[in-house]
């Protein structure tokens, strides 16, 4: 099983932030990534639809013979947090490792959470934090336009559309004087420069993709499943690969043309 790949899925491009971190932290692992680009975003869907999509995504990865599945999607992690029993395979989400780091680094106990509407309405991050630290104040803000911005390549912190959207959404957190912000969607690290510019240097941003990669490494080590001979990545999407290839190439720093395969996710 050591040589089998880590399966990672997300509603679209956002999970690539987790893939990038996974490649850096676990350079000897094989990775299979699925981005559900045909049905993005998940954040404005019903709970039942999100669970249905998550199960299809996970079944596809299981079909590919992976040793572990990572839901690199804040919405799925919040609405369908435990699919391991249904899948019969090791499974991880982004909520637990991200909250753990936020609780560790905050100095004032004032933590902001930004995410999709479904993630914020689930209060998953807030519940997890206040379960451990009921004295901490957690301020939640949904940012429904962030995913469409990223999926369409609007990530430059100097772009007026990006700057004004970030300013509008983050005003309540700025007014609340938070010292830590959880990027509760794996799309959001692609907007981290704009978010940092708006919030200032004294606010720490917690990258859910990075924390999930670190947590994945910890789990695999504990299970003695670390690979020492891999280092390949395969990418699959549910819609035309063109836009995904372009943006993924920019983000991962390599040519992705003709390296992404479209599949019919409804088969799963």
Q: How does this model look, in words?
A:
The chain has 268 residues and is α/β, with parallel strands linked by helices. The chain has helices spanning 16-25, 47-63, 74-79, 84-87, 95-105, 117-122, 124-132, 146-151, 160-175, 192-199, 208-222, 241-252, and strands at 6-10, 31-35, 68-71, 90-92, 110-115, 137-142, 180-183, 204-207, 233-237, 260-262. It has 2 domains: 6-93 and 210-267, 3-Layer(aba) Sandwich (Rossmann fold), CATH 3.40.50.1860; 95-208, Rossmann fold, CATH 3.40.50.1860. It is built from 12 helices and 10 strands. It has a 6-stranded parallel beta sheet with strand order 4-3-1-2-9-10, sandwiched between helices. A 4-stranded parallel beta sheet has the order 6-5-7-8, sandwiched between helices. It is globular and about 45 Å long. The mean pLDDT is 94.
């Amino acid at each position: 099983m050591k040589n089998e790949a880590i399966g990672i899925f997300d509603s679209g491009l956002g999970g690539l932030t987790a893939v990038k971190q996974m490649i850096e932290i676990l350079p000897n692992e094989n990775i299979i990534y699925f981005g559900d680009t045909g049905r993005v975003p998940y954040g404005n869907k019903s709970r039942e639809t999100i669970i249905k999509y998550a199960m299809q995504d996970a079944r596809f990865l299981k079909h590919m013979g992976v040793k572990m599945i990572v839901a690199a999607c804040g919405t799925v992690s919040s609405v369908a947090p435990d699919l391991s029993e249904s899948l019969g395979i090791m499974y991880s989400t982004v909520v637990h490792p991200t909250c753990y780091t936020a609780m560790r680094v905050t100095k004032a106990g004032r933590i902001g959470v930004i995410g999709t509407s479904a993630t914020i309405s689930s209060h998953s991050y807030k519940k997890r934090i206040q379960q451990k630290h009921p004295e901490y104040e957690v301020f939640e803000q949904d940012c429904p336009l962030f995913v469409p911005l990223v999926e369409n390549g609007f990530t430059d912190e100097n772009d007026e559309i990006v700057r004004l959207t970030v300013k509008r959404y983050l005003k309540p957190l700025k007014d609340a004087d938070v010292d830590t912000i959880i990027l509760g969607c794996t799309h959001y690290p692609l907007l981290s420069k704009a978010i940092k510019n708006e919030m200032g240097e004294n606010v720490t941003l917690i990258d859910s993709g990075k924390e999930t990669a670190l947590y994945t490494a910890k789990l695999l080590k504990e299970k003695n499943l670390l690979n020492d001979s891999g280092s390949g990545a395969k990418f699959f999407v549910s819609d035309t690969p063109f836009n995904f290839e372009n943006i993924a190439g920019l983000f991962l720093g390599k040519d992705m043309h003709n390296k992404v395969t479209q599949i019919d996710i409804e088969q799963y």
